[in-house]
Amino acid sequence: MTHTPMAAVWEELGGDPALLPGVSTVARAGALEAALPVRALARACVGACALAAAELGARRAGLARVPRVSVDDGAVATAFVSERHLRIDGRAPLNFAPLSRFWRTADGWVRTHANYPHHRARLLHALGAADDAGPEDVAALLAGRSAREIEETVYAAGGLAVALRTSKEWASHAQGLALAERPLIEWGGSARRAAPVDSSVSAGEDRPGARRGRGLGPLSGDGVLLPAAGVRVLDLTRVIAGPVATRTLALLGADVLRVDAPQLPEDPDAHADTGFGKRSTLLDLAADRRAFDELLASADVVVTGYRPGALDRFGLSPEALAERCPGLVVAQVTAWGAYGPWGGRRGFDSLVQVATGIAVAEGSPERPGALPAQALDHGTGYLLAAAVLRALTEREERGHGAVVRLALARTAMWLTDGIGREEEPGTVPGSSTSGAVPGSLAFDAVPDPSAGDPYDRPDAWLSERVAPVGLLAHALPPVTFAGGPADWSRPPGRWGTDPARWS
Fold first, then answer.
1. Any idea which of 194-203, 250-259, 400-409, 445-454 has the lowest mean pLDDT?
2. Are β-strands 87-88 and 470-475 bridged in parallel, bridged antiparallel, or unpaired?
3. Strand 232-236 to strand 301-304: parallel, antiparallel, or no bridges (unpaired)?
4. Does the active-site annotation cover 269?
5. For the packed helices 375-398 and 241-251, what is the interaxial angle rounded to 10 degrees?
6. Element (DSSP H or E) covering residue 411
7. Which residue out of 72, 273, 377, 444 is catalytically annotated?
8. Residue 86 phi/psi, 5° resolution?
9. Taking the model in full, what pTM does it have?
10. What backbone phi and psi angles, to 5 degrees, belong to 83?
11. Which of 172, 236, 331, 467 is surrounded by the fewest CB atoms within 10 Å?
């Protein structure tokens, strides 16, 4: 069997390789075209997530066969730029603020991120600029300075700026070296990857320490298979990667409650894009700790996306959570990893692309470039959801929780150095078969490989619905499997307006 990107991801997830031929691809020319194999990354991340969902659904529903999975390049490409397709009463959101961009420096290029007001203020303070400084003012200040000096000065002030590097330069950087020693998907706690779970064990048996769906079956009233029905997810994430993961878990039936601090408002447009299927509440972890602890006591999953160390002072590091709550699945996503000299730094997809050589690979001799999507965010988000689903499947079998970590910069290095070119159109990873696999769950028959129409318009993968914030035009979910949900059960509500309790 060819070791394709999908197979590599599934192996890191600890999945049964016998299930891989149950995944097929509808390939579409023009989807996520780039110098780097972005389409292969996107297919693998979404395909692994869908297969993990189908596997968990089959396990919980007691099915003999894992539902077939189809990955459509059109759906994937549309979902990977969901923030660009979002319309709120016809209005398109602003995805990057005026000071979030590339800048010429004395010796190269630097990119800044200033979408949030507090990051903009810190950037201007670090540069000695006036509070009302605009792009022309900042350009003049940066033109005579070194890119690396700007990077260190702005980060020291709590802002965000990253100097342009080649992939070779990043590979020799101390943070790049630290990341290279880690797997793409890092497991800790009881669920450290060993051998795949024995899929022949029947679903539905209680195990000590397991927190199990509160008696809710995985089949909805209209027969839709919802693998995560009854699973309670505390969502402590922001921006894209973490919210994409929890948005996906909400699609699959999880009760997802996003918790934000009142003093850190979220961009309402970002919440409208990633808030599908969720509820959103506000809690000050210092003042409202009792309310948070009550939520945590009955949570099945906690997903965090803050800078490493930011939650530690509240006793909410992944290790502390796992020790406090046996059976809990803890998933953490960071920009640079939770280790190495940059382990405590803030970061965003656009900045990680600059540091790791992606902006050089996608650019020209005259100017750095970018991927056709914030693919590190979206890809890592689907990988994180896949890891949570696999951990829940293992918890069904073994009764223990798990700690899983992913980093945008590690995903970037997989894209630049490890993923290889994408496979030919067809099933992933090889020719399909059907029927039972001895000693494991079987998979449904997969239709013949197909090459779809070229991807030139996203219309087939967009939908509209009325939400509390207005009429939303939005991308449909790319994670699909036979019998599974085609859309979220509810639109996003207004940020921070739900009570701090489970449904």
1. 194-203
2. antiparallel
3. parallel
4. no
5. 50
6. helix 408-413
7. 377
8. -65, 135
9. 0.91
10. -65, -25
11. 172
